[in-house]
């Protein structure tokens, strides 16, 4: 801006001090002065706008430095901690499965309940061929099961860990569904499945169809342990 102002003043001085033989009317002088004033005001406004923009940029820069640290990456004491949305945080190990029964099964004594439809199998810890879940890591797990007996039947089914019962379900023909949820710690390689406890009368038919999957077996890793 200083250079522009100087050039305007310098030009005006030369114009006034020019050829003395050239007569300039007072009206022309006043008109030129008005034009120069307008140009000066315009330059001043432009300079003020540039200063304002510079201040905004400086303020943004200082705010970023306060948030992230200084130019060398060192966090200042007044720096703010950046929070990552929970949805973007992926656990180191995710384990989950859910399976269902789509047809009737007549259960014998100690027979494993074999679920033929796998809905979810994250980490492939559920063996769809034998309906066993094998813990891929040590941790705290939650298992949830449901049991529905066909008409005229009553069924006892256990949730077992390595062959030992950790949960119990009972369903009869009164059209009610039995459910059970257990939370248990498992070591790597521990196995969990569902099996029939046995019935001397042999009325242990559980119901299933593609449209009505009442018998289910699900599990999820809640927290991994070291």
Please, how many helices?
A: 2
Q: What's the number of structural domains?
A: 2
Biggest β-sheet strands, sense, barrel: 5 strands, antiparallel
Distance between the termini: 69 Å
Classification by helices and strands: alpha+beta
- The total count of strands amounts to 12
* Architecture (CATH level 2) name of the largest domain: Sandwich
Query: Unreliable segments (pLDDT under 50, ≥5 consecutive)?
Result: 76-82
Mean pLDDT: 80
Determine and state the CATH class of the largest domain: Mainly Beta
Strand order of the largest sheet: 3-1-12-6-9
Relative strand content: 25-35%
Radius of gyration: 41 Å
C-alpha geometry: rod-shaped
The share of residues in helices is: 25-40%
What is the helix/strand order? HHEEEEEEEEEEEE
CATH topology of the largest domain: Jelly Rolls
Properties at a glance:
single chain, 226 residues, alpha+beta, Jelly Rolls, 2 domains, 5-stranded antiparallel beta sheet, 30% strand
What does this structure look like?
The protein is rod-shaped. It has two helices and twelve strands, in the order H-H-E-E-E-E-E-E-E-E-E-E-E-E. It folds into two domains: 67 residues; 138 residues, Sandwich (Jelly Rolls). It has 226 residues and is of the alpha+beta class.
């Amino acid at each position: 801006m200083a250079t522009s102002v100087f050039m305007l003043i310098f030009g005006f001085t030369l114009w006034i001090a020019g050829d003395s033989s050239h007569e300039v009317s007072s009206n022309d002088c006043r008109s030129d002065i008005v034009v120069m004033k307008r140009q000066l005001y315009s330059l001043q406004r432009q300079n003020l706008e540039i200063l304002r923009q510079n201040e905004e940029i400086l303020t943004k820069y200082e705010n970023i430095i306060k948030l992230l640290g200084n130019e060398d990456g060192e966090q200042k004491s007044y720096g703010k901690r950046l929070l990552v949305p929970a949805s973007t945080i992926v656990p180191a190990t995710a384990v989950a499965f859910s399976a269902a029964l789509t047809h009737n099964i007549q259960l014998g004594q100690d027979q494993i309940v074999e679920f033929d439809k796998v809905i979810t199998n994250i980490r492939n810890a559920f063996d769809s061929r034998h309906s066993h879940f094998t813990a891929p890591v040590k941790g705290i797990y939650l298992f949830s099961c449901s049991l529905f007996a066909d008409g005229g039947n009553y069924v006892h089914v256990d949730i077992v860990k390595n062959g030992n019962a950790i949960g119990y379900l009972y369903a009869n023909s009164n059209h009610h569904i039995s459910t059970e949820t257990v939370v248990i710690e498992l070591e790597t390689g521990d196995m969990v499945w569902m099996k029939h406890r046995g019935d001397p009368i042999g009325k242990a038919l559980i119901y299933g169809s593609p449209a009505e999957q009442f018998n289910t077996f699900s599990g999820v890793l809640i927290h991994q342990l070291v």
